[in-house]
Structure formats: C-alpha cells, structure tokens
Protein 1
Amino acid sequence: MTKTLYLMRHGQTQFNALGKIQGVCDSPLTSKGIADAKKVDQYFKDNQIEFDHAYSSTQERASDTLELVTDQPYQRLKGLREWNFGLFEGENQRLNPKYDPKIGSVGDAFVPYGGDSADDVQIRMVRVLTEIMDRKDNQNVLVVGHGASIYLFLKNWIPLEEIVKHVEMKNCSVLKFEFADDKFKYLKTINVVD
C-alpha cells in the first residue's frame, strides 16, 4: 500500500533573517515565518489535504510552524531535529565550512567542533521517517523539520544533480513523497510562499 508524506521545512526565524547558522540552537519565527506557515495551512485546506498524523522536531521553530499549519494533535520527535553544527551554532553563515560539490555537503567538517557528520544526520533522518511511515495507521502524514536535515534525507532518495536543478527548499517549502516497501519516492516540492 502506498502512503504519502508531506515533509515541511519550518517558517523563517530570526536567525534565518539575520544569516546566522541555526542547527540545534533555536530562534523564534519572524512575522514572515508566521504568515508563510498560515499560507501553507490555507493551501492544505484549499486542496482538501488532511493528515491522519502529524509530527515535528522537538525544536520550537518546527513545532510552532506545525501549530500554525494544523490544529490537530501531533508528536514531537528528537530524531527529526536539525543537524548539530557544534561551535558554529549562532555564528554568521559566512563561517560555514566549504561545500563539497562531489559529495553534496560539507561531510564531516563540523565533527571536530562538536557537531554531527552529514552521514549521521542522513542515517538518522532516513531511520526516523521510515519508522513514522511504517506505522500501520499512518497513511497521509505531515512532518515539520529543518532545511539541512531534510536536504540530507532527500539526497538519500534522488541524485544530487536532480536536487540542484529541480528542488528549491525555502522556509515553509513542503516536499511530497510516496512511501511503499520502506522506500520514499520524491514527487514534488510545494512552494506557496515568496
């Protein structure tokens, strides 16, 4: 049986607006982040998309976004948290390690500074989202998480070249997947905000 996952990035935060590195540290949603989440809520209503279950990361920017998108009960899961950037947390994005186009990430660059490796985040995201979708009563699911960890999850299922050419993942973007036989198939990205 095919199931559907709507994987949403949280709304814009103060750190996003200021160009600060935001992984396990948190900052509140901006007025734009709040307004954009409400636009996604309206999109779901206009398209009669309903969820039998909803989940968010334990970080407030994700759960606050989810609460603006739906008023249904939801579960917060630590496994959905953002990449830990170690000592880079809260610093200006100019300090980010250099992106390696061969591997499509910065790899282990944050590990010496107390952060996570890209592989560890990807493995965690694949595991937790598979566990969510494997639950018998989860057919049409909404999950709100974070940009970098969602990107690494997506990279597990489609080629890097396709992501670079076809996937724009802004704040409040929603990635739609089909799920069957413990595999995710990326369908499209829903962007209803500027």
Protein 2
Amino acid sequence: MTTWNRRTVLTGACGAALLLAAGLPVRAADDKGDPYAFVVDLTNAVLEEIRKDPKLHAAEPARVRALVDTYLLPAADFTMMTRMTVGPKWRQASPEQKARLEKGFQELLIRVYSGALTNVTDERCELRPTRRRPPADEMVIRTLLKSSGKNDVGIDYRIYRNKAGAWKVVDVNVEGIWMVENYRSQFASVLSQDGIDGLIAMLETRTDELAAKNGSAAGTK
C-alpha cells in the first residue's frame, strides 16, 4: 500500500479541506444543519466537483479563482483564521494592515493549495469511528480521507456557529498538524524581526513568487 509523504498529505488534504468551506450548492450540505453531515457531505461534494471539472482538476488559475470568489470567501471565516494565525500582534495592526494581512493570507493559501487539486482521484471523506457528540457552538469534526491504494488520512476540521447560525471552518488538522498553528510559527519570526509591515511584504512577495512559478509550470505543459 502506498504511504503518503507527510508534506504531500499536508498540502493536498489542506487544499481539499479549504475548499470544503466552498458551500457548493448540493442538497445535503446544510451549513445550518447537522455539523457532522455538513463537513462530510460538503467535502465529498467538493471532491466530486473537482473530479468532474477538467479545468478545476488541472488547477487553472481562473477556474480556481472563480470557485474561491463565488463559494469559499462567503463561507469561510478568513478574518478569524488570519487573526488566529497572526496572533497577539493582530491587535496592534491598523484596519488597513488587517485588511492587507487577510488578503495576503488568502492569496497565499490559494496559491499553495490549488496545486493539490490535480492530485484528487477517488478520495472520499468519512467520519472517524468515534462517538458523536451533540452539536455545540464550537466543534472539531474528526474525519478520514479514504482512497484505494493509499493509507487513510486523518483530517480534523475546527468549525464554529456564527451569530446567523451558520457553520464556519476556521482551521484544519492533517495528521496532527493544525494549519493555523503551522503558519503562526512561520509568521512569528517575521513579526518579531520585521513587524506587521514585514509580514505583509513577505505574504505579498511569496504569493507573487508562487504565481510566477505556477505560471511557468503551466507554460511547460
């Protein structure tokens, strides 16, 4: 049985997990209903959407951008995600800096994880065989990503219920690595040395580098 490289797992599963929040218009994915069904049904709907759309499966930038703009941003709480990732220094940022941090983090995640779409094959999401707890306003939903010929991958989703009663995804854990914590540790050194403006510059520079790299790769196909 093929063993998934840890970095590949983290990149691929987090990519799928971020797109989980896309809110694709499927009957079973009720963002105000059962949180377990919301996570599992929506993840599987997204995986199926990727499989049937060649442009999305090929991670064409325009198609990925359209998917994100239409579905991901309204459903995922990127403000909270960014605040959690930046940490205490978020409170010191001006409104303009907060907006640039959030936009920069969004763009970085899109560039980093969109390439994972090309790896989607027959993956399917299932709940882990653990006792289901009654819904609470903040929850961690534990799932397994299953695929033939590959080891199961454990993915946990941190969600919360907002004031409107809708579930929002704010973090993802792949095989013991929480995405927010992982980025927070990377950003901490930049913040300590270069401050908030330094982190903004790093996010924008890194995103531009990935865009150029992805564009070059696309041109060689």
Protein 3
Amino acid sequence: MQISVGIRPLATQVERIAATGLRKRDVLQAAWRKAAAGYVVGDAYVEPRAVERGGGRENLFDSTLTVDAGALDGLARVHDPLGVKGAWWLIRGQIEPAFWEAVDDVLAQIAKRT
C-alpha cells in the first residue's frame, strides 16, 4: 500500500543542509531513500518526538512510502478505531528518527567528499 508522507528535517539540520550548496530537495530525497529502504511498519504506535523540525514549506519533503497494509490496519484498529487519522499519523513517530539519522549520514557523506 502506498501512503503519502510529509516529513521535515530537524531544525538543526536545515542550516547544515544549506551549507552543502546542494539543492535541499536532493539532500532530503537521498536521506528519504535511505530511511525508507529498510522500513517495516512496527506493531506499536510511537508518539512523534517533541523536537524542533525545520519549519516552512521549503523544508517539507513530500513523498510516498510503500507499507504493509495488514500491519497498518493493525495499528489503526488499536490507535485509530474511528478511522479519522491518516496512515502518516500512525507511522510518523516510527520513521522520523530513521529519516533524521539518514539526513545526518548523507551530510557526513557530503562532508567527506569536500
């Protein structure tokens, strides 16, 4: 099942991304590919971390993610019994940390090349 994703880097990562001189979208896309590649929906809902994310539309990376529909349905039955939340709401707390780690990894790769 494909779901829509709207994810932001951490506020502290935004300046580091800009300092690379590369297009922000390219850096975020590289990080997203890395984070999404091995992602599997966990069976427990994880509350999104209370951290400062990069604000503004310019820091929002929109993409899609393929997830197991059965696993997502299991999360929804327990944590969204009225069916009013989106799929992204259910998994955001699970995948955001992996994305932020991937952003740091991509930035480290870029730094090694310069």
